Amino acid sequence: MSSEPHQVSLGFTRQDFPAGVHVCQIFSKDEDRLDAVLKFLRSGLEAGERVACFSDDLDDARLGSYLAVHALSLAEHTASGAFSKTGASEVYFADGCFDPDRLLGLLRKFHQEALADGFPAARVIGEMMADVLRLAGVSRLLEYEARVSLLLREHPITAVCQYDATAFDGATIMQILKVHPLMVIRDTVVHNPFYVPPEDFLASHC
Amino acid sequence: MPVADLPDVRVLGQLLLMQSVVTSLPDDSILPFVTQGLVDVPGVTRVQFMAQPSADGEDAALRFRLACSAREHGELLFTVSNATAFAPYADHLRNFAFMLAVILEERQQRRTIDAQYQHLEQRVARRTAELARERDSAQRYLDIAGVMLMALDEQGRIVMVNRKGAELLGESESALIGMDWFDNFLPASEKAAIRQVFARLMAGETRLLEHYENVILTRSGMKRVMAWNNTLLRNEAGAPVGTLSSAEDVTERRQAEERIRELAFFDQLTSLPNRTLLLDRLKQNLAICLRSASHGALLFIDLDHFKSLNDTLGHDTGDTLLQQVARRLTHCVREEDTVARLGGDEFVVILAGLNGRAEEAAAGAEVVAHKILSSLNDIYHLGNTVQRSTASVGVTLFDGQQASAEELMKQADLAMYRAKDAGRNRVRFFDPGLELAMKERVRLERDLRRALVDGQFLLYYQAQVDSNGRLCGAEALLRWQSPRRGLVLPGEFIRLSEETGLILPLGLWVFEAACRQLAVWASQPEMALLTLAVNVSARQFHERDIVDQLLKVIRRTGAKPERLKLELTESLLLDNVADAVGKMSALKAWGVCFSLDDFGTGYSSLSYLRRLPLDELKIDQSFVRHIVANSSDAAIARTIVALGQSLGLGVIAEGVESDEQRAFLAGIGCVAYQGYLCSRPLPVDGFEELVRRSSCDA
Q1: What is the β-pairing status of strands B223-234 and B385-387?
Q2: Are A174 and B17 inside 8 Å of each other by CB?
Q3: Domains of chain A
Q4: N or C terminus: which one in chain B shows less Cβ crowding within 10 Å?
Q5: Which H or E run contains B538?
Q6: Under CATH, what is the fold of the domain B145-255?
Q7: How would you label A49-73 residue by residue, b for 16+ Cβ within 10 Å and e otherwise?
Q8: Which of B21, B32, B37 sits opposite A26 (nearest CB)?
């Protein structure tokens, strides 16, 4: 018996996507980043999914009041395990280094536990910090992103990676685009014509 | 078209995507992003951005200029390994380069605008800061000023006030701005007048008062005395647009000055003026008396046996008594009078503006002196004890001519000792003659009142002779048959009667007695045609209902009004001519005649004389007395006669005592007369006898 893939809303676009999409958001204004975070988390909670946010800069009060407007209780969802927030630096640079294997393991476990806990799906949104270039270099970052795309095939977490255009240089941003199949352009999610399938990307770069 | 010539849709999508993404990228990220992305174009091995475009024509197919308008932003230089694969993208890349140039141009322009805007903002911020500093600096100068500074606009609203002013007025500076100065900070009794002056100042109708002091009210209602320095603010055309003022709160200074003045001029126990201020006031009063020809009085008051009271009850009780005495004295006199304490139990009162005649001034002073004695004789509540006390009062009058202030003090002091010597609790005058005269005045008034009640007055009659030489009537003359004084002539009591108001009942009695006599004579053939002249005083004639009063008497007595001749004086008529004309006309309608008495002694004027319904002019005896020898008197008499003739009035001379006088008067046309030449004033019997004899002679 085959089952239809679980459809998800990203919150900031009307389109629905199958669970497990890997989306890149290039932002230059923090307000755009925050707007995407709030909508993404809300739509996930409204869909009953387990949601996680990796951010160093998300005000609980603002998130709480935003969710409250939409009849969602931050406290309740935090208590139930539906929502969790972890600092981006804490997630990506645990022990002061960027370790793709650890991160991929963490994502895998996040998905497995979500399903085990009865959530129909899981989603995560995180802002990649520019420190990654200093700590690991662009190649390790691209490798990680390409492997995330591979992981999501087995563990269809809906993932949005946020990159600050003012923190990463233009050439790096172009390379980051190549490892994300979807990207957000002005509240619209588009298929990325620069996207290089992870197998191809990893083969040519690693 | 060969298939190989078609561009890959994916690459075109990349170009579109890059166009979308670059708009979100920072300026310095755009070209690295683009050059990295364009490597995906088929056949391309490398893409470079060249800030300086190369010469035209040189590998033009691989160079894409980033040009927009006239501006060059550099070019994209492609290194191509497969020109055939690259060829289908050339036009798209040119379009892309143009779009990129547009974006770069927009960024450039925005940067320029931003820079200009930033520059402008910096200038504005700098200038704003400068202005703020200047304002703060000016405000600091205003604030550190030790005085209140305030500017008003032409409506009198506050447009500037410094911190000192705000503190003083009890309101914040911001709240004060726009408030109406006159409505909010001036006493109610003054605001309208001061606002009017301010309005006139703004209209250029009056000059600015640069320095003055006034009282203002703070927001909490406290009164403050402010000393102002004012400057007029003008616009470019020179018209007033407001005022700029500095003001110093001098309340405490003025209070201190007032306190110093109090210490210097006021007795600390009673708050009454002390000797220094008393002498100053006395000198002022002397000058006023001299100028206004009036009298004043100085009363020296000493409490009887105060020393023993002080010794017995203690000084505190004595002080309390003195304070109560001070209050009672103050209540006994008018506002314009002065009560002072010399020290100990000695007080002095200055009575100002008394009558011009010494006797009357003395009478007034005595009334006040006795009022004082009576007030001071009342019981005093001194703590737990009740005490009685008396005082002795010495009085001296002054008119500013004879004695100095110091001499007057001695006189009043001496008079006070005379009061003590006479047994205390009494009033004595410094001038014994004056005291005697004043006492006589009191007695005379008492006797007059009694005379009216007891019917001691009677009428004498002095014959009047008409132009035919016949005895035609008489003037009724008042006499007082006093049991103590004998027969008293009017000169001795009429003035007092007028001052005391007794003239009203006395005048009415005279009129009624005359009417009664006329009625009696009406039944006697030889007397029936006589006229009787009766004097009416000014005060009596000014009574509002005098016409009714006289007509009632006429009716009651049955006298014939046409036999009555009322003699009025010039001064009486001059007071209110219209009123006099009205009353005279009303009486004349009943047949009463009028004679103008003492004619020529006043300021008779033809203009009013013509209006009065007169029948006769009477030449005053003062002209008649020397009419033969004095050409001036003769000229006046001649004028009066001519005047009477021209107005159609009869003329009669009074005081005719000799044939020479009568002959002279007859010579100028006045043949009617009265006087000793014909007869002295006689009691009724004597007069009737005279009439009968005269009839027989005729």
Answers
A1: unpaired
A2: no
A3: 17-205 (3.40.50.300)
A4: N
A5: helix B538-541
A6: Beta-Lactamase (3.30.450)
A7: bbbbbbbeebeeeebeebbeeeebe
A8: B21
CA B145/CA B675 separation, integer angstroms: 90
A166 → chain B, closest CA residue: B26
Q: A-chain residues within 8 Å CB-CB of B37?
A: 174, 177, 194
Q: What is the pLDDT of residues B145-182, one digit of tens each?
A: 778 999 999 999 999 998 889 999 999 989 999 999 99
What DSSP character marks residue A93? T
- Report the run of H or E that residue B170 belongs to, with start and end: none
Is residue B57 very low, low, confident or very high in pLDDT (cuts 50, 70, 90)? low
Q: Do B17 and A194 touch (CB under 8 A)?
A: yes
Q: At B44, is the secondary structure helix, strand, or coil?
A: strand
CB contact under 8 A, B28 and A170: yes
* Cβ pair A35, A196 in contact under 8 A: no
SS3 label, residue A132? helix
Domains of chain B, by residue range, sit at 3-114, 145-255, 266-430, 451-697
Give φ, ψ of B661 to 5 degrees. Answer: -65, -45
Architecture of domain B266-430: 2-Layer Sandwich (3.30)
pLDDT in the model for residue B3 = 46
Give the number of other Cβ atoms within 10 Å of residue B149's Cβ: 19
- What is the rounded CA–CA span in Å between residue B373 and residue B233? 63
- Going A191 to A193 to A194 to A199, the CA torsion angle's sign is positive
Domain range B451-697, CATH class: alpha beta
Closest chain A residue by Cα to residue B21? A185
Interface contact B415, partner A, CB < 8 A? no
Scored b (16 or more CB within 10 A) or e, A102-118 reads ebbebbeebbeebeeee
Which ipTM value was assigned to this complex? Answer: 0.87
Question: Looking at CA atoms only, how far is residue B37 from chain A in angstroms?
Answer: 6
User: Between chains, do A174 and B10 touch, taking CB under 8 Å as contact?
Assistant: no
Cβ distance of A185 and B26 shorter than 8 Å: no
